[in-house]
Amino acid sequence: MSLKFYRIKLQILSFLYSIKLFLSKVKLRIGIALGLVKSIIIMPYIGFGNEKEVYLLGRVIRNRDVGSATKDDSSFKNFKKMYKRFMTWKIPNVRIRASFEGKYWTTLTDEEGYFEFQIKDHSFPKTDYSWKVFELELIDQVLTIQGEVKSETNVFVPTKLVEYGIISDVDDTIVPTGATRFWEMVKTTFLGNAYSRIPFSGVAAFYQALAKGTDGKENNPLFYVSSSPWNLYDFLLELLVVHQIPKGPLMLRDLGLSREQFIAGSHFDHKLNQVEKIFRLIPDISFILIGDSGQYDPEIYLEVIKDFPGRVKRIYIRHVAEKRKEEVLQIQATMLQLGVQMLLVSDTVEAAEDALAQGWIREVDVQYIIEEKRESLSNHH
């Protein structure tokens, strides 16, 4: 792309983005004036960090009361909830205050209603308990009758007992979504819910085993990195809870028009940036990386190995894309030269047996994984 064409593209994007922001502001003002915006919520996302710095973020939006899913929800009800998640009314340029142990920090929401805190002026000493609870509060008045707008968010700071961390992809790694087949993915996302989206057999027990490590105390942190939009945050968190997969920070992305791109951020760049952010903010431990062969996880993890030598213990890749096998095997060979083994696995049990052989999980937990797989298979027959 020539420099001249690139500049023209940026000018067009900047113009379109300014129109988008203008329409958003007009919509919000009219919505408030007509009483369509009755209440506002702070949607907090799970944060993480170390004893010197923590990172937390969230979004301020109109409360559309999506509510929790049930097993009996119809496809139409699921679609309505998903529509509400995507048709957000964001609240830009308002102040959010975070507080923890008597200290306060303030930041502004951006044009899309997102806010983030990178707190470096406080110490978060390692204790035997890894989760810190931060209070969040909206300072500015947006509505005439607003009341207090508060929320809490959990922030993970590793304990002294952490053995290693785990970073996992979501789509086609934890749960089948057909991420490589667009229409199948759309149907699965918009018509299903946390109960109807069934993870691959053995995943919950395997992730529990990794969280427990060798001492059985669930101190090892799990991070979930996905190219899904932030609009799906509560849905994906609910999916983890419903299927008893250990909770952890979910690193998603903002989709849609931005100043620089028609669709904000590429899949590759987003995932690489988020994984490397985790490596930088949790500097003292090594990681097991889990993904699938369908959407460039091997390529992304290879970059991580190069950028953070000695920090990756093992990579488990669920083999879902036969057409990519040759490419993936070449990456596997390159990783081996760099001292990291990437295993292509057909199911969760294979990965668990390797983790057991390496002395990273307990044998009793592998038995749970095998039982979970057996139970899952019998339920499908």
How would you describe what is shown here?
The chain has helices at residues 3-33, 75-86, 182-191, 203-212, 233-242, 267-281, 297-307, 325-337, 348-357, 363-379, and strands spanning 40-49, 54-62, 95-100, 103-108, 114-119, 131-138, 150-156, 165-168, 222-229, 250-253, 287-292, 312-318, 342-345. It has 381 residues and is an alpha/beta fold. It has 3 domains: 1-36; 38-156, Immunoglobulin-like, CATH 2.60.40; 165-379, Rossmann fold (3-Layer(aba) Sandwich), CATH 3.40.50.1000. Strand 9, helix 5 and strand 10 form a beta-alpha-beta unit. Helix 6 runs parallel beside helix 7. It is globular and about 65 Å long.
Strand order of the largest sheet: 4-3-6-7-1-2-5
Low-confidence segments: 257-262
Number of helices: 10
The geometry reads as: globular
CATH third-level topology of the largest domain: Rossmann fold
Protein name: Phosphatidate phosphatase APP1 catalytic domain-containing protein
InterPro entries: APP1_cat, Mg2+_PAP
GO molecular function: phosphatidate phosphatase activity
Domain Phosphatidate phosphatase APP1 catalytic: 164-319
Keywords:
alpha/beta; Immunoglobulin-like; 3 domains; 10 helices; 13 strands; 36% helix
